[in-house]
Specification:
Number of strands of chain A: 4
Shape of chain B: elongated
Number of domains of chain A: 1
Shape of chain A: globular
Strand content of chain A: 5-15%
Helix content of chain B: 25-40%
Largest sheet of chain B: 5 strands, mixed
Structural class of chain A: mainly alpha
CATH topology of chain A: Fumarate Reductase Cytochrome B subunit
Largest sheet of chain A: 2 strands, antiparallel
Oligomer: heterodimer
Low-confidence stretches of chain B: none
Order of helices and strands of chain B: HHEEHEEHEEHEEHEEEE
CATH class of the largest domain in chain B: Alpha Beta
Mean pLDDT of chain B: 93
Helix content of chain A: 55-70%
Low-confidence stretches of chain A: none
Radius of gyration of chain B: 27 Å
Number of helices of chain A: 9
Largest interface: A-B, 38 and 51 residues
CATH superfamily of the largest domain in chain B: Oxidoreductase, molybdopterin-binding domain
CATH class of chain A: Mainly Alpha
Distance between the termini of chain A: 11 Å
Distance between the termini of chain B: 52 Å
Radius of gyration of chain A: 21 Å
CATH architecture of the largest domain in chain B: Alpha-Beta Complex
Chain lengths: 223, 260
């Protein structure tokens, strides 16, 4: 016996999907800005293992010599991303939906079990609600990262007006670095998220589109 | 409607459940497609608009909107942090526009135009109270350097030699030319609150030395409430005006305000 279970409320779905092009636009315009002073790298001492970013990356994506354009888009889309994010967090708090997302004291251990299960190193996955422990940590983390991107962005955008904030975050130079790594963090989240969604399958993905999940099992009391 | 079917009615047969989820999926994807078209259409529309000073006009409007938000919510006199002078480092010469003509630092004077019209010799500017600050110079490209500056407040200059105006336009020598004889001039516009900010200085010295030619000798502007592209070198003309002055980089797609 199959049935439809309501999974994701409509506002969550709308805001989730709104976020996709907005975050993409912010990262794209952020790259246009970053190109003008692309100083970050992964390296040990004087040895650079990876430079963000190689020339071919900019030229392949056409990201070079577009600083003014990048800034204009970045400072336009920032409003939409911030408003969408604030609405999302407010909705979670006002409706109690945050309870599905927030990790609890069991989450760290369970998240490891989930990962071992995903890597096929463990037979069973721990019991879960709407989201498993790894999801709770990842989704709550990415919301906090969103807040971090907003705050570090403001500290770079208005470093004199928000001088206290800029100093608190380690000073102008560090804040730019933090903002950059948060952006890379979003990209990493995106890649893992999409891979996991593909792995989990259509029914799960469809729930974020329609709101409903097809569930197999007996309806209680209908034997 | 769908909610009622799904949640309230008697349990559906498997086929009915499948039919219902297909209907919901079609509907949601149709909504998503419309949304994607609208969003993609809006982005394409913006990207294909005519340019207003080097940037699509809807984006220029947003920059202006952001400027008014900044002015409404931020304190115009808020100070940037200052650092110990020992932390000062050398500054890269990042732009030479307006510096190409042969320098004539002797007998330099600043021509105040607009509502006032007078020539102020450097010696008269030096008589204003001197201020030193070690602050973080921030380039729009994304880098910053801690630099020590010495000079007089533009606020003091304007009070003594100017008249109140909504904007302050500034320029390198009007008749500047490069070696090939092409016009070579750099110019910036300041809103009045930024012009009279206590950390907006007309500087004679950088890091304890008189300004070099590349850094704008004999007189340059430095402000902690603007990006470096607003900090004009080799200042020759100060125009007091109530019309928004033209700005070299703002004409090339950058934000006119560039405010910090």
């Amino acid at each position: 016996m199959k049935r439809l279970d309501a999974k994701h409320p409509r506002p969550i779905r709308w805001m989730h999907w709104f976020n996709v092009p907005l975050l993409f636009g912010m990262i794209w315009s952020g790259l246009l800005i970053y190109w003008a002073n692309d100083v970050y790298r992964i390296g040990v001492g004087g040895t650079t293992l990876f430079h963000f970013f190689p020339e071919w990356f900019y030229s392949a994506l056409g990201l070079d010599h577009r600083l003014a354009e990048g800034m204009a888009w970045h400072f336009a889309l920032m409003w939409l991303l911030a408003i969408n994010g604030l609405c999302y967090v407010s909705y979670l708090l006002l409706t109690g939906e945050w309870r599905h997302l927030a990790p609890d004291h069991r989450s760290p251990r369970e998240a490891i079990e989930v990962m071992l299960h995903d890597l096929k190193l463990r037979k069973s996955a721990p019991p879960q609600g709407k989201f498993n422990a790894a999801q709770r940590i990842a989704y709550t983390g990415v919301i906090l990262m969103g807040g971090g991107a907003l705050v570090t962005g403001l500290a770079i955008y208005k470093p004199t007006q928000t001088a206290w904030l800029t100093s608190l975050l380690g000073g102008y130079e560090w804040v730019r670095w933090e903002h950059f790594w948060l952006a890379l963090g979003f990209v990493a989240f995106f890649l893992v998220h999409v891979a996991q969604v593909i792995k989990t399958g259509w029914n799960n993905f469809r729930a974020m589109v329609t709101g409903y999940e097809v569930v197999k099992g007996e309806e209680p009391g209908h034997e | 409607m769908s909610k009622n079917i799904v949640e309230d009615a008697a349990p559906l047969s498997d086929t009915a459940v499948e039919a219902e989820i297909r209907r919901l999926t079609r509907r949601s994807f149709a909504t998503g497609a419309v949304g994607a078209l609208l969003g993609g259409g809006a982005a394409t529309w913006i990207a294909t608009r005519g340019l207003e000073d080097g940037i699509q006009w809807p984006l220029r409007r947003v920059l202006r909107f952001n400027e008014s938000v900044s002015q409404a919510i931020f304190g115009p006199q808020r100070l940037a942090p200052e650092f110990a002078p020992q932390l000062a480092t050398d500054l890269r010469v990042n732009g030479r526009v307006g510096l190409m003509s042969a320098a004539a630092a002797d007998n330099w004077s600043v021509h105040v135009t607009g509502v006032a019209d007078r020539h102020i010799p450097l010696s008269a500017i030096r008589e204003l109270p001197m201020h030193e600050m070690t602050t973080e110079f921030k380039c729009v490209e994304g880098w910053s350097r801690i630099v020590s500056w010495k000079g007089v407040r533009l606020a003091d200059f304007l009070q003594k030699f100017g008249t109140p105006s909504q904007y302050v336009g500034m320029s390198t020598p009007i008749d500047g030319q490069d070696a090939q004889g092409n016009a070579d001039r750099y110019y910036v516009g300041f809103d009045r609150p930024s012009a009279i900010h206590p950390q907006t200085l007309l500087c004679f010295e950088m890091n304890g030395q008189p300004l070099t030619e590349g850094h704008g000798a004999p007189l340059r502007l430095v402000s902690t409430v603007k990006y470096g592209y607003k900090c004009i070198k080799r200042l020759s003309v100060i125009d007091l005006t109530n019309d928004r002055p033209a700005d070299y980089w703002a004409k090339r797609g950058y934000d006119w305000y560039g405010g910090h």
